[in-house]
Request: fold
Amino acid sequence: MSKVVIITGAGSGIGRATALAFSARGDKVVLAGRRAAALDETRDLCPFPDLVLPVPSDVTSEKSVAMLFAAAVDTFGRIDVLFNNAGTFGANGSVDLIDPAEWRALVEVNLTGSFLCAAEAFRRMKAQVPQGGRIINNGSISAHHPRPFSAAYTATKHAITGLTKSISLDGRPFGITCGQIDIGNAATGMTGQMAVGMPQADGTIRPEPRMDVARAADAVVFMASQPAEADVSFLTIAATAMPFVGRG
Reply:
């Protein structure tokens, strides 16, 4: 049975790859992102574009998020899955060098945006018949271990873990599950520098392996496809041999 899936940050990268993966299953997919043209490109790449709805949205705006979910329900009748994927890098540097304005901007997208989308999804899933649904938050390898000079980004991803656990607990009476996927070094337009060289814990700069972004998309679909009796609370998928497991 097909699902209705909302994907934020769907105009590129992991969001686009995940949209294609859900569409290949015949699911109804709602694409959210700031760039309308990029969302249209994602839709046109999907195997079943007639079942894909692009909705230009700003996850940091309560009004925009409410309009996104209303459009999804008006078009497809319900919401089964939210992939809370929208996020950004930025505010790089040691903690004493981070511009507070850049800190706030990063928190607005990575944390507040995830909260607003999760809250709206929770409301809809709680009220719909049949009740329930799944929220999948995009964490990061940084939710486990930081890179050098990433205090702002890492702080938001640790916060996503707390948000995930709290939503999972609060959703139990309503059949709403919440899990987190932590992705390491998926090959997207945002991660090209990894193949060139990234700062390491020992102060060196070295290239790191990357994996096909489709592997991350497949993992999200796996989490979303579990029966109601099962929940994947946390899943980590990373490029083989990236500097994650072991001493830095």
Observations:
- DSSP finds seven helices and eleven strands in the chain.
- The longest helix spans residues 100-127.
- The helical segments are 13-24, 36-45, 62-76, 100-127, 151-171, 192-196, 213-224.
- The CA atoms of residues 60 and 108 lie 6 Å apart.
